[in-house]
Amino acid sequence: MSDPHDGESGSHDSAGLSRRRALGAGGSLLALALAGCSGTGGGDTGTAAEASKPETDAATATETPEPTTTEAATEAAALEPLAVPEDSNCAVCNMKPAKFPDYNAQLQYESAEPKFFCSNGCMASFAADPGHFEEAYADASIAAAFVHDHDTTDWIDGLAASYALEMNSDRVDDPMRINPLAFDTEADATAYVEQYDDLTADDVVGFDAFDRDLAEQYRASFFE
Q: 20 to 30 Å CA-CA from 224: which of 59, 66, 77, 166?
């Protein structure tokens, strides 16, 4: 006589087997996933590791190298006034710039030796027409200029300075009798010219104003 629970038992066995197979398959998948994460199984794990690797090589290849300490120091030094050699001669009048520590001036060049001057008038004359004084400097590019502030006598940036076009030799005891007077600010240069009736605000100029015509007003005899 058949057991009324046989069919039910068969169903239970079939369901249990299905659940075991499903759990077994799930465990296998979990094992494979863990193996992939640990890099111990499967041929695709290398690709995954490479994909997660920081892309530093390309960035490093395109970065601009930082200048060395020596290079940085050299660049900074080029923006500072140089010590005036005791034996140097003014590139215009041939006097000794070192003898005039409150008035001498200098021009530094990108690809040429610096030039030293006894005064601003000689510097301005050389800058206006360098080829007239030394042919090799005809096309030389000025990298920096340094002059002395008329009030403080400190070195200042000659390219950024303001100049009072002083033409009266009785007012200033400077080399070569007359020179454009350098000031650190336009306000200081303006304050200077306002002291005299023969000078106006138009007599305050920048470095770029020194062309051949203006330079000849200060050093005419050296352009003959």
A: 166
Residues 213, 143: one domain?
yes
Q: Which of 23-37, 52-66, 108-122, 203-217 has the lowest mean pLDDT?
A: 23-37
Residue 140 gets which letter from DSSP? P
Parallel, antiparallel or unpaired: strands 115-117 and 142-148: unpaired
With cut-offs at 50, 70 and 90, classify the pLDDT of residue 66: low
Residue type, 13: D
Coil, strand or helix at 129: coil
> How long a stretch of residues is the chain?
224
The whole-angstrom distance between residue 41's C-alpha and the CA centroid of its chain comes to 54
Q: Do both 186 and 95 map to the same domain? A: yes
184 and 92 co-located in one domain: yes
Which of residues 33, 62, 91 is at a domain's end? 62
> pTM of the predicted model, to two decimals?
0.66
- Determine, yes or no, domain membership for 67: no
Residue 137 belongs to some domain of the structure: yes
End-to-end Cα separation, the chain, in angstroms: 143
Sheet holding 105-109, edge to edge: 115-117, 105-109, 142-148, 155-157
CA angle 59, 71, 207 (to 5 degrees): 110
> 155-177, pLDDT tens digit by residue?
999 999 999 999 999 999 999 99
The answer to whether residues 122 and 90 touch, using CB atoms and an 8 Å cutoff, is yes
Q: In angstroms, rounded to a whole number, what is the distance separating the alpha carbons of residues 133 and 111?
A: 17
